[in-house]
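Tetratricopeptide repeat protein, Carboxylicivirga linearis. Tokens?
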Amino acid sequence: MSRKLLIVICFCIPILSFSQKTDNTENNLEEPLFKPFIERYILDEIKSLREENQRLKAQVTEQIAEAKLESSDRAIQYTTSTINNIFYIITAAASLLVLLGWRSLNDIKKSIKIDTAKKIQTLTGDYESRLQQIEKKMMERSKIIIETQQEITNTNSIHSLWMRAGLEKSEEEKISIYDEILEIKPNDIEAMTYKADALLEIGEVRWALNLTNTAIEHDNEYSLAYWQRACAYSQLDKQVDAIKDIEKALELSETLKDEIQHEKHFDNLRNNKHFKSLIKE
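Tokens:
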């Protein structure tokens, strides 16, 4: 981050010195000189985020593999040690029985085989059950990690798209970017509302109205959705519905009171008495 900031400063210093020498020329410039550096900075940030996500995915996969291998090694070592101990015990018992003459050698061999088989079967079943439980837990954790990583990726992608939308001047390009956001997160009411605003700018009033209705269905406490729907109603000359939505928007967010006089989509309501009373309040 510091290196990128230093590069931007190094590029900005010559530009600033040059602009001081050419004051008359500066007035003729139509666009800011720093816009390419901002775009480059945004692209570099997006690239670094993608690289960090790839490294995180590799680290998570490696940790899961190491955990599975370590669990398997421990289970096998524990099983081997247990079986060896059982054999030692059985051997000692068999030797004692032979010395005391309680059983014949053949009976002892048969008994040892039966007991050993039972013990091995019991231990094998026990450790298979434990390994299944461990594997199940690891799969659940892996699923959570993958879902979290996907959520982080989606969040980063949406953030970068919002930044692109803030730089775009064309309403059609903004609508295209909002569509990309909704493709990643279909229920993003903020993207729906901003898309409706862009649609109003290009005259797609009916489309904007349907979009604001969908946003309100997902969240009936989002003030901007009511505000944009009021704009659509105003354009369709549905003054009663527009006034109701304006009142609801102001009820949910008092900060919108400062915008009511400057909203161009409310021009059809300027002569409405109820609208005038809202402005005075």
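The mean pLDDT is 77.
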